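Ticket #4471: structure output looks truncated?

Reporter: J.K.
Steps to reproduce: submitted the chain below (396 residues) through the standard prediction queue, then opened the result file.
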Amino acid sequence: MNALRAARRSPVAAAVLTVLLLHLLGTLPQQVDWADRSTGDRPLSALRLLTVSPTLRFTEATGAPAVLQEALWTVLFLVLLAAAAAGFAARATGRAKIMAVAVVFPVFAPLAHLLALACLRLPELSFDPALRGQATLQLLMDAQAGTGHAVLIGLLGGQVAQLTGVLGAATEESGLPLRERLRALARRFRARLDTLWPQIGSTLLATAGGALVLSVLLSDAPGRVLEPLVRLWCAPDELPKECGIWLREQVGNTDGTALLAGEKPRTRQFMLFYAWQTFLALYLVTHLCVSVTTAGLARVPRVLLSTWAAYTLGAIGFVGGLEAAGIPEGAAAAADPLARQLLMLLPPHGLEHALYGAPVAAAVCAGTVWAGSRLIRRGTRPDPAPTPAPDTRPAS
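Returned output as attached by the reporter:
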């Protein structure tokens, strides 16, 4: 009982301990050796591959350097996730604290994984100009390869934090009479209903904003903006133009639209319609659920968190929709359709796009809300009272 109360008071600590334990299980030599031999062609083996530490699977270091690199990555990853979760929890009240932690850990895990890897490879990125472009390319590839592991342990850590928080609250309310507990439940339900319609309106606007961001990211505009920057970053390389193309493709061509190459126009339209329909449905439902369950969070952080989670699930649905619509009928009949669907979700290929697209969508929506609230606040601010003019009449 004391452990549940402590976990409820600090859901971030409960999530961090869970993530640490799960990641340590994925660093066991037996796990890494099995992952080196496995192909992950079955759902259970693909799921087990997600539990293995990606920094040990894809590193060339051995012995003490590999252990040190793994320890540094683990510390950086947990510090980034804990700092983000604590920041959101500090701006929330009531049960929204626990729900914010439960959402932050899986949703921010891909970016935390990328930043932790970048910190480990700062010497290669900063002090070796001749290989800086290739080091950046390898960093992005390794970050995308490890998003599944990061999201899995973050999801389980967030769920443990939420479960301990709910159990702790139930333990504290167990001493109350049944009538008081039912009244408290009815008050919470009524509070959710009072904020439901405004949340639906904001969710529809956010869904339109997310669709706009996705359509821009799927166009050629990001590539045109990024190409000069990445070519400048690759300038010391022997072939800066090719290096820039590689980096641009690594960031921009992770949206699943490559699956449309070679398809007939009518088939392309059907696949895009199915993918957009899946994106909008997942985005709307996810944004509404996160907004309602974190109603005690401040407005701008709530919009940031809701949009980040909604875009992540929407991107997974978009790429998954393209993949599902593009499966030939013969291939679907020859193999187990359920196994094919599970393999596409372990890990979801849409995480590669969400790694870069979700922070952009969240920043755009949260920045728009922040700027709008500032303008409204400035417009409704009362004018200061005029200062009376000083009396300049000569004294009698």
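Triage note (M.O.): checked the attachment and the full token line is present. Residues 329-334 have pLDDT under 50 and may be disordered.
Status: closed, working as intended.
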